[in-house]
């Protein structure tokens, strides 16, 4: 489904990613971990063609993402769902409009939008909040709206860039349950995270990047201290997971 | 269809949010269109003037030596009358010529009275069927004996046409410079809007909105500003031209035998030009301002 072959990307002298090769199959749930600046964002941006690779190829659904023409890039991005840590919802649109927006740009008819958006709001449990603006919602609710928007067009892949990063643990787990549910429907999930607890609890494939290079790729992997920015700090007793 | 509606809705919401910026662009475009309009009015009137001269000054005056007798001049007139393009000929005595000068000079005619002798020659005045024949007639007449000199208005026409051309070129250059300036102003104005919404644009790109979808509202904003500016400057140029005719009309009347190009004709045509140009400036401005935020 997704295959990186010897992919490198530099920003001037700074390494984004260096000679990355890996394969992600359809329906997988993959964590992408590593310290800040390790190249996780570049990895994701390359897949979305928000940046261009210097070398290598990225095959996705049978075509090479690195060779996409500008004209075909929007269509490529629409085949994926994207959730960010923040930076996700359009502030001047209501919850309903934010989700509808993703359908508008793929030119879904108005009545389809009117039908499907409420259904999606039910799935993420935000039916009552349809007319609110993002800033009137809690961060967890905002993230659920973002997830709703990212999957409304049934993408084959859901890319989640630290979706729990700003959330309290309970809300974080809520989001994880949602993502797992989505994954069970057959959607491939690629999640960038820093959360040891989530990685360890979910028992999924873990891909670790450091200084732009792939350093570990394990199924049912655990979170290693080396993925952290700082050496591990002892957590106070009774700290919530996340 | 729903896409078009979505884009339209966003464009108007956007203009409403950026009232000051929209107003700044609007006035810069309107001011530029106004200057352009004034130049065009001048060009149009000079052209009309040149055309009038061409149509109405189709006479050639043959000045004769004093030695030419009335009989000889009658023979000359007969000969000239047969030349192609000559509609009629008329003999003008030096006394008649002086009288017509006096009429033309009006208040200053007494200056002519003070001259000791009449300096004007007898002449034959040829009316041409068309000014195109002037060259040929002048050439043939020049070869005749007894001709002292020939006056005809071709020089004036040439000078006017030349002036018209110079004005046209100068105004074209000025207009081009102004258009470039206004595109810069508009694009910078819209860039501020774009910058304020950079985040949204990035989100839209991530979600897979096409360049045109993202650009649409900004483009429409630019076009709408251009149209409003065109309307404002059309009305303004109408008033300016109306008052120019009212107030300068008398002073300029002697140069404009056929009067000014009609107000309605000018305003109607300028309005079309203004809308076309306003829309182009607005559209170019917004496209330029967005370039760097979109897919290459």
Distance between the termini of chain A: 30 Å
Largest sheet of chain A: 6 strands, mixed
Rounded Rg of chain B: 31 Å
- Strand composition percent of chain B: 5-15%
Q: What structural class results from the helix and strand content of chain B?
A: alpha+beta
What is the CATH architecture annotation of the largest domain in chain A? Answer: 3-Layer(aba) Sandwich
Assembly state (oligomeric): heterodimer
Note the run of SSEs of chain A as H and E: EEEHEEHEHHHEHEHEE
Tally of helical runs of chain B: 10
Largest sheet of chain B: 4 strands, antiparallel
Order of strands across the widest beta sheet of chain B? 2-3-1-4
The poorly predicted ranges of chain B are none
Q: How would you spell out the order of helices and strands of chain B?
A: HHEHEHHEHEHHHH
Structural class of chain A: alpha/beta
Q: What is the name of the CATH class of the largest domain in chain A?
A: Alpha Beta
Q: Return Rg of chain A in Å.
A: 18 Å
CATH topology of the largest domain in chain A: Rossmann fold
Structurally, how many domains make up the residues of chain A?
Answer: 2
- For this structure, what is the CATH homologous superfamily of the largest domain in chain A? P-loop containing nucleotide triphosphate hydrolases
List the chains of the largest interface with their residue counts: A-B, 28 and 19 residues
Give a structural overview.
The complex is a heterodimer of chains A (242) and B (296). Chain A is α/β, with parallel strands linked by helices and 242 residues long. Chain A folds into two domains: 157 residues, P-loop containing nucleotide triphosphate hydrolases (Rossmann fold, 3-Layer(aba) Sandwich), CATH 3.40.50; 65 residues, no CATH class. Chain A is 31% helix and 25% strand. The mean pLDDT of chain A is 88. Chain B is of the alpha+beta class and 296 residues long. Helix content of chain B is 72%, strand content 8%. Chain B is elongated. At the A-B interface, helix 2 and helix 3 of A face helix 1 and helix 8 of B.
């Amino acid at each position: 489904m997704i295959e990186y072959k010897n992919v490198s990307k530099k920003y001037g002298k700074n390494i984004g990613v260096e000679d990355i090769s890996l394969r992600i199959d359809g329906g997988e749930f993959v964590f992408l971990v590593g310290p800040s600046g390790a190249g996780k964002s570049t990895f994701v941006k390359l897949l979305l063609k928000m940046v261009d690779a210097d070398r290598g190829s990225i095959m996705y659904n049978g075509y090479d993402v690195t060779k996409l023409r500008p004209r075909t890039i929007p269509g490529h991005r629409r085949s994926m769902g994207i959730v960010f840590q923040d930076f996700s919802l359009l502030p001047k649109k209501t919850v309903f409009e934010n989700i509808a927006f993703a359908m508008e740009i793929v030119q879904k008819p108005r009545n389809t939008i009117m039908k499907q958006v409420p259904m999606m709001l039910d799935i993420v449990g935000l039916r009552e909040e349809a007319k609110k603006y993002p800033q009137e919602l809690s961060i967890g609710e905002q993230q659920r709206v973002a997830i709703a928007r990212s999957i409304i067009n049934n993408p084959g892949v859901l890319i989640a860039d630290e979706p729990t990063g700003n959330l309290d643990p309970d809300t974080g787990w809520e989001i994880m349950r949602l993502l797992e549910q989505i994954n069970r429907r057959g959607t491939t999930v690629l999640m960038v995270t820093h959360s040891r607890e989530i990685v360890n609890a979910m028992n999924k494939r873990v891909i670790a990047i450091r200084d732009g290079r792939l350093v570990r790729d394990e199924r049912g992997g655990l979170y290693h201290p080396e993925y952290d920015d700082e050496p591990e700090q002892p957590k106070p007793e009774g700290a919530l997971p996340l | 269809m729903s896409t078009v509606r979505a884009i339209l809705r966003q464009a108007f919401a956007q203009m409403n949010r950026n009232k000051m910026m929209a107003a700044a662009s609007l006035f810069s475009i309107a001011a530029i269109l106004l200057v352009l309009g004034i130049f065009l009015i001048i060009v149009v009137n000079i052209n009309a003037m040149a055309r009038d001269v061409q149509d109405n000054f189709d006479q050639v005056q043959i000045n004769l030596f004093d030695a030419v007798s009335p009989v000889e001049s009658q023979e000359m007139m007969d000969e000239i009358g047969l030349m192609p393009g000559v509609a009629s000929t008329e003999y003008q005595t030096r006394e008649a010529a002086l009288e017509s000068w006096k009429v033309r000079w009006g208040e200053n005619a007494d200056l002519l009275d003070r001259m000791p002798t009449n300096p004007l020659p007898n002449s034959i005045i040829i009316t041409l069927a068309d000014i195109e024949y002037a060259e040929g007639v002048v050439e043939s007449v020049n070869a005749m004996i007894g001709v002292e000199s020939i006056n005809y208005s071709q020089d004036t026409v040439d000078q006017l046409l030349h002036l018209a051309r110079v004005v046209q070129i100068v105004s074209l250059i000025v207009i081009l410079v102004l258009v470039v300036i206004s595109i810069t102003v508009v694009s910078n104005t819209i860039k501020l809007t774009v910058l304020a919404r950079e985040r949204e644009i990035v989100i839209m790109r991530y979600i897979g909105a096409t360049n045109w979808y993202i650009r649409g509202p900004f483009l429409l904003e630019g076009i709408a500003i251009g149209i409003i500016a065109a309307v404002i400057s059309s009305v303004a140029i109408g008033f300016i031209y109306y008052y120019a005719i009212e107030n300068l009309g008398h002073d300029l009347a002697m140069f404009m035998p056929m009067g000014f190009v009609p107000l309605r004709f000018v305003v109607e045509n300028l309005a079309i030009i203004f809308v076309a140009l306003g829309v182009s400036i607005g559209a170019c401005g917004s496209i330029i301002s967005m370039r760097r935020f979109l897919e290459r």
